[in-house]
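User: I'll paste a sequence; please echo it back and then give the predicted structure.

Assistant: Echoing your sequence first, then the prediction.
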Amino acid sequence: MKLKIGEHFFSWERPLVMGILNLTPDSFYDGGSHNNTDDVLRHCEKMLTDGADIIDIGAFSTRPGSEIISVEEENSRLLPYLIEIRKRFPEAIISIDTFRKEVVKNALENGADIINDISGGIFDDEMLSFIGKNHIPYIMMHCGGSIESLHTNHIKENPCEIVKSFFEKQIEFLSQYGEQQIILDPGIGFNKSMKSNFELLNNIDKYRTNNLPVLIGISRKSMIYKTLKTTSKEALNGTTVLNTIALMKGADILRVHDVKEAVEAVKLVDEL
């Protein structure tokens, strides 16, 4: 499958690396780290220099217990930095991590290329129709709950079947608008038990739908640091181990905080 993002075509000759840029004050790992234009641009430049294919920008924290901010606040956190990033890095591929159609519209008008929706279209009733009608490159994540219960109501059994069924339903809705540009994300760490997280990592092709590319986002998540009895700050080695496994299981995109290490994993697995 080929994916067209802006003027770029991806045919998945190798997995891609998506670098995370959090503009939130309270994200679980790097909240508050990038709170002025110089820091944001410096971080973007480092990720791109380290080999990031995509920059994923988020202005709404989804960590456990995070505040549900308004659309206006999400826009005010996001748009000034998005404008500066697009000016400084005109060739960069920029993804926006949001589940709100109004934020999507503003982001696209200011240079965004991809929408990364943690709800897969269920938190905003207008999201999927807007994506479908405009054929916007779209990362469809499964979360299985509401915005208030992202980290509760854990799926404990049959996660691959549940995630695949969700993808099939949402893809069918989008398909009524014609061919779409879809990337699948099983939502590891969202509404899943620890056992289910590892099952989803270990069985990527069981929920891959229509041969679409699959994104895996496990960077510094609790499935790593709770298993190792450490913290998110100490979870880089564990992240690299599981990213390597994800690649060997068929992941097409790694979403990561630490780009250099992920790019090295891609290169080494590619040699195998």
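The mean pLDDT is 92. Residues 71-88 form the longest helix (18 residues).
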